[in-house]
């Protein structure tokens, strides 16, 4: 019964949306990469780098949105590295992706130690504050959940719409999807497959870094080691769960976040006190795996995902 | 046909080398407005290479391409498209998971224009498909279309870009005879609308039917050219093949007892391809059984059942008179089934294994190649050397990785591997696909030899000519159902085509009754 009550509180849904926001950015980023035919396993490390870069920029005195932009550029730089190795050179996307994750993570920690050699607890910044949208935030339940978030969260939802429109309504999106389905078809129209794929990976990596930056600049106000904590890997699963579609991926992210928000609250109920808390920590992952199994069986993988393309080869 | 003899395209002494191989050697020819020129030549003669140069996918080592009097920049497909040249590739360049309209409009508008303008695009596609009689729905997902429909999409793709010159690379290779007729109607309509066409083929009767002029390539060189009304198939064949390729002589043979039988076998569908539907078929000794049909109509399921990859869901299979309970690839090989798989790259060989390893793939676990769990590489090597010698596999040696061999030589190794065991049943699935005419004749003569030795050969092919030439008995498969057996020469290609389209058994009375 207590669980049912939790489901009807605005604070629960507000938490779910907040937890979902970084996942939405990074999932969109991964989705763009995969739609163009490149699996980007650099996601976890790029999120770490983005989390640090945005936070550090603001700590050094820039305003919040400049911090977001800097995080994005750092992500794009790692995206450039990833795409150079995987697209024109056609190296293994698994190895390159894991390499980028290791490189981005460790160089971020290194940069942290260089920048703040003395501190024992990381300093705080003035993070994004909730912005209540007039009128809309007055709606019962929904208003508290959706329209009393930080501007960074609103950006996540706007981007879902933007990415959908670009992918499905513009020539660029069509070419990008075709690059992930059959690059030979793209080349036969005289379009640059390499450019499209590299562009997608660079843009996608920028979004991943914004997802990381959300953690330090909106969800929390400081940077910790291990703070990304596998969220990048969850996003890879969310792309599959969302069947490579932005709208469905958004729903997947909110669903996962809702499980996560729920387990925290159930732990605090009388019923939850009887059960080891590790069980609750597992719940979002177990439920996600179950949902993934059920939903993704019909999903259509981009046909040329992880297939390198070299012009002139048969 | 009106001829104002305006030259629209000219190739000047195009030369292209791949390593030691000269694919095109100073080839020149031209194309006039409203003309259909057939580019004729056997597989490997350099036709596709030449067209890929024209279309900017390869860069020529020497020579130039002129379109409407302007020299095209080398190696730039975009420039070729912009100059009004469109190409329908032999291997379609379509994205299966996308719709017909998405495939057609891909790359037409600038990447950075704001919208796709889908309504206008759709209207234009519908209009073009009506004008050129290319029936296809813009909303259909390409993966769900038949091969013939996909080809229509490819042609529409070119027409949508207002091309003036259309290149078709082996367009009929994958079509039923009826679809070929439809294609020819479309091409004639295109010529009437002022397009010029280059039609690549190695089928003489098609060339005679559609072309105004024929240009023949042989070993990368221009070996002749003629107006269609001034020539005939015999002299074209001589230009195309020279004199060194002699097709095997075929005598009909009397069928023996059934070596392998399917009794009312049904199998589940494989993806979108239908499974078998209550198929009964006897493979008799001393016989080549031809299985005609458009690809994806149950051939794969039938090949899997014979080759031991799939047990029937219903019905049963018999080896001789014994009903089989366990029929796996290994049991099949041990019982004298030779398998020449459809895709020699994917399932016939392991690309990065050498010839020796590939030669023993089916037999590695039995004597003499393996004893007490140890491989005997000396015997394996000797076996591979024997095949290379006897089957004329052209390669640097048995230690060569098989990926470096041409398709024909790869196929010869597979032939050697399975035929050396003197199999009772030979499952030949598309055995000559993509081979040049010399290799085709060789493969065919080996199949005939196996038959004359007493084996039963199941020949699965999309090439109706091949089926009709070689087979003692012909079946047609459509939507997983088998036609009755036809004997050699009993049916015309058009009649078989009706069966291939799945309408062979529709009773004629229906048209009267309704």
Protein architecture, described:
- The complex is a heterodimer of chains A (314) and B (514).
- Chain A is globular, with a radius of gyration of 20 Å.
- The mean pLDDT of chain A is 91.
- Chain A is built from 13 helices and no strands.
- Chain A starts with a helix and ends in a 19-residue tail after the last helix.
- With 314 residues, chain A is mainly α.
- Chain B has 514 residues and is of the alpha/beta class.
- Chain B is built from 18 helices and 23 strands.
- In chain B, the strands form five sheets. In chain B, strands 13, 16, 19, 20, 21, 22 and 23 form a seven-stranded mixed sheet that branches. A six-stranded mixed sheet of chain B has the order 6-7-8-3-9-10, with helices on both faces. A four-stranded antiparallel sheet of chain B has the order 2-1-4-5, covered by helices on one side.
- Chain B is globular and about 70 Å long.
- The two termini of chain B are 41 Å apart.
- The interface between A and B is medium-sized, with 23 and 32 residues.
What is this structure's SSE topology?
The complex is a heterodimer of chains A (314) and B (514).
Chain A: H1 2-7, H2 10-35, H3 43-59, H4 64-86, H5 93-115, H6 142-146, H7 151-169, H8 171-181, H9 183-188, H10 193-219, H11 231-241, H12 246-267, H13 277-295
Chain B: E1 7-18, E2 21-32, E3 36-40, H1 47-54, E4 62-67, E5 70-71, H2 77-82, E6 85-88, H3 100-105, H4 118-131, H5 147-160, E7 165-169, H6 177-192, E8 196-201, H7 204-210, E9 213-218, E10 221-227, H8 233-241, E11 258-266, E12 279-284, E13 287-292, H9 299-307, E14 314-319, E15 322-323, H10 329-334, E16 337-340, H11 344-348, H12 355-359, E17 370-371, E18 374-375, H13 377-390, H14 407-419, E19 425-429, H15 437-452, E20 456-460, H16 464-470, E21 473-478, E22 481-482, E23 486-487, H17 493-500, H18 509-513
Parallel strand pairs in B: 3-8, 3-9, 6-7, 7-8, 13-20, 13-21, 16-19, 19-20
Antiparallel strand pairs in B: 1-2, 1-4, 4-5, 9-10, 11-12, 11-14, 14-15, 17-18, 21-22, 21-23
């Amino acid at each position: 019964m207590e669980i049912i009550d939790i489901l009807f509180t605005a604070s629960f849904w507000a938490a779910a949306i907040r937890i979902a926001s970084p996942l939405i950015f990074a999932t969109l980023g991964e989705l763009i990469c995969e739609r163009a035919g490149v699996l980007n396993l650099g996601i976890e490390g790029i999120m770490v780098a983005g989390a640090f870069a945005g936070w550090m920029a603001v700590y050094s005195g820039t305003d919040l949105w400049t911090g977001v932009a800097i995080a994005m550029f750092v992500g794009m730089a790692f995206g450039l590295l990833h795409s150079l190795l995987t697209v024109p050179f056609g190296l293994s996307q698994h190895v390159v992706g894991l390499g980028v994750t290791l490189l981005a993570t460790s160089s971020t920690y290194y940069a942290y130690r260089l920048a703040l050699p003395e501190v024992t607890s990381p300093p705080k910044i003035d993070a994004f504050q909730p912005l209540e949208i007039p009128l809309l935030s007055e709606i019962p339940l929904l208003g508290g959940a959706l329209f009393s978030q930080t501007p960074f969260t609103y950006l996540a939802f706007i981007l879902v719409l933007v990415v959908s429109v670009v992918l499905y309504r513009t020539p660029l999106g069509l070419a990008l999807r075709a690059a992930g389905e059959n690059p030979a078809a793209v080349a036969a129209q005289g379009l640059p497959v390499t450019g499209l794929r590299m562009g997608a990976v660079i843009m996608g990596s920028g979004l991943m870094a914004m997802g990381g930056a959300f953690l330090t600049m909106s969800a929390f106000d400081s940077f910790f080691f291990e703070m990304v904590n596998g969220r990048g890997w969850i996003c890879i699963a969310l792309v599959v769960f969302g069947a490579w579609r932005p709208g469905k991926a958004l729903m997947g992210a909110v669903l996962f976040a809702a499980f996560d928000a729920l387990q925290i609250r159930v732990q605090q109920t009388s019923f939850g006190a009887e059960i080891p808390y590790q069980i609750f920590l597992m719940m979002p992952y177990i439920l996600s795996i179950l949902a993934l199994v059920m939903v993704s069986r019909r999903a259509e993988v981009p046909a040329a995902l992880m297939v390198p393309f070299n012009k002139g080869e048969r | 046909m009106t001829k104002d003899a305006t030259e629209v395209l000219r190739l000047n002494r195009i030369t292209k080398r791949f390593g030691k191989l000269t694919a095109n050697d100073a080839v020149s020819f031209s194309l006039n407005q409203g003309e259909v020129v057939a580019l004729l030549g056997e597989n490997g003669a350099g036709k596709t290479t030449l067209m890929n140069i024209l279309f900017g996918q390869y860069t020529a080592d020497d020579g130039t391409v002129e379109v409407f009097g302007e020299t095209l920049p080398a190696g730039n497909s975009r420039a070729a498209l912009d100059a009004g040249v469109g190409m329908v590739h032999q291997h379609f360049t379509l994205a299966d998971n996308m719709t017909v309209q998405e495939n057609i409009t891909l790359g037409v508008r600038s990447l950075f224009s704001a919208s796709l303008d889908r309504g206008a695009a759709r209207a234009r596609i519908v209009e073009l498909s009506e004008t050129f009689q290319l029936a296809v729905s813009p909303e259909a997902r390409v993966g769900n279309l038949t091969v013939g429909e996909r080809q229509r999409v490819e042609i529409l793709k070119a027409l949508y870009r207002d091309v003036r010159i259309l290149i078709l690379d082996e367009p009929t290779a994958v079509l039923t005879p009826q679809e070929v007729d439809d294609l020819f109607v479309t091409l004639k309509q295109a010529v009437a609308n002022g397009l010029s066409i280059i039609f690549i083929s190695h089928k003489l009767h098609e060339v005679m039917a559609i072309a105004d002029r024929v240009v023949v390539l042989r070993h990368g060189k221009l070996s002749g050219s003629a107006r269609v009304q001034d020539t005939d198939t015999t002299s074209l064949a001589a230009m195309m093949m020279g004199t060194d390729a002699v097709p095997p002589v075929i005598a009909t043979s009397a069928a023996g007892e059934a070596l392998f039988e399917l009794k009312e076998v049904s199998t589940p569908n494989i993806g979108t391809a239908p499974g078998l539907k209550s198929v009964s078929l006897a493979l008799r000794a001393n016989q080549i059984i031809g299985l005609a049909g458009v690809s994806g109509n149950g051939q794969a399921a039938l090949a899997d059942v014979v080759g031991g990859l799939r047990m029937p869901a219903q019905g049963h299979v018999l080896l001789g008179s014994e009903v089989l309970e366990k029929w796996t690839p290994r049991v099949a090989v041990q019982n004298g089934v030779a398998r020449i798989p459809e895709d020699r790259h994917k399932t016939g060989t392991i690309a990065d294994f050498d010839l020796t390893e590939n030669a023993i793939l089916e037999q590695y676990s039995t004597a003499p190649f393996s004893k007490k769990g140890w491989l005997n590489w000396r015997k394996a090597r000797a076996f591979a050397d024997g095949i290379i010698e006897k089957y004329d596999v052209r390669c640097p040696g048995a230690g060569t990785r098989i990926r470096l061999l041409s398709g024909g030589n790869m196929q010869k190794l597979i032939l050697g591997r399975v035929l050396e065991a003197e199999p009772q049943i030979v499952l030949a699935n598309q055995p000559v696909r993509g081979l040049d005419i010399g290799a085709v004749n060789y493969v065919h003569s080996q199949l005939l030899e196996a038959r004359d030795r007493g084996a039963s050969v199941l020949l699965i092919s999309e090439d109706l000519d091949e089926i009709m030439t070689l087979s003692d008995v012909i079946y047609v498969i459509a939507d997983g159902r088998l036609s009755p057996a036809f004997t050699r020469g009993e049916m015309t290609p058009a009649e078989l085509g009706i069966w291939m389209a799945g309408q062979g058994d529709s009773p004629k009375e229906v048209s009267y009754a309704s």
